[in-house]
Design a protein that fits this description.
Distance between the termini: 34 Å
Strand content: 5-15%
Helix content: 25-40%
Shape: globular
Radius of gyration: 17 Å
Structural class: mainly alpha
CATH topology of one domain: Transferase(Phosphotransferase), domain 1
CATH class of one domain: Mainly Alpha
Length: 192
């Protein structure tokens, strides 16, 4: 997979303490835009977290979100990954080319972090500083992800929850320190 960076020229000038805004000119690639931006033009630092989460899920799965369609009801990559996460089979989404070169716990943790980043409610998403901390520290116990934005329900989904064994396995960690989501101790530096 070759990384491509685009959408230059969309930058806006913000005040020093401004972390969110709104626009009537919505530009970008659907599927990578946070739902609040795509539907209402509302953007914040959590909009980039959403996009990062989509990229993480693409890297792990080897599938592009922008052209994703899976028979069985998953219309987007986040829904597909969520279904496997919920059913306790997250490694089923992994790109087959990675099967010989991965650590099971690291892949599951990356999927977990990716799903936290694509939460529908921006307040439920971690900051990028928290994501970096999660990726670098295995002593943090991660919050359980909720259904991602744009998750499409079907009758088969009603009442489905992750298996108790899978959730118990995800909450175990050697010398784990609970991650509360309160990022008061994480400093975010903004350029001027």
């Amino acid at each position: 997979m070759n990384a491509k960076v685009s959408d230059f020229g969309m930058a806006r000038i913000f005040g020093v303490d401004q972390t969110q805004g709104s626009t009537n000119r919505i530009v970008g690639t659907y599927g990578y835009m946070s739902p609040e931006y795509a539907m209402h033009g509302q953007f914040s630092v959590k909009s980039d977290v959403y996009s990062f989460g989509v990229l993480v899920l693409e890297i792990i799965s080897g599938k592009k979100n922008s052209s994703f369609y899976q028979t069985g009801g998953s219309a987007d990559l986040a829904s597909y990954v969520w279904r496997h996460w919920r059913d306790g089979t997250p490694l089923e989404v992994m790109d087959p080319t990675l099967t010989d070169t991965y650590a099971r716990s690291e892949v599951i943790r990356c999927i977990h972090i990716g799903l936290l980043c694509v939460q529908e409610d921006p307040a439920s998403r971690p900051t990028m500083a928290a994501v970096v901390l999660m990726l670098n520290s295995y002593s943090l116990t991660l919050a359980l992800p909720q259904e991602p934005a744009f998750f499409l329900h079907s009758r088969a989904d009603q009442g489905s929850i992750p298996s108790k064994e899978f959730l118990a396995d995800q909450s175990k960690s050697k010398s784990a320190v609970p991650y509360s989501g309160d990022e008061g101790s994480i400093a975010e530096v903004y350029p001027r």
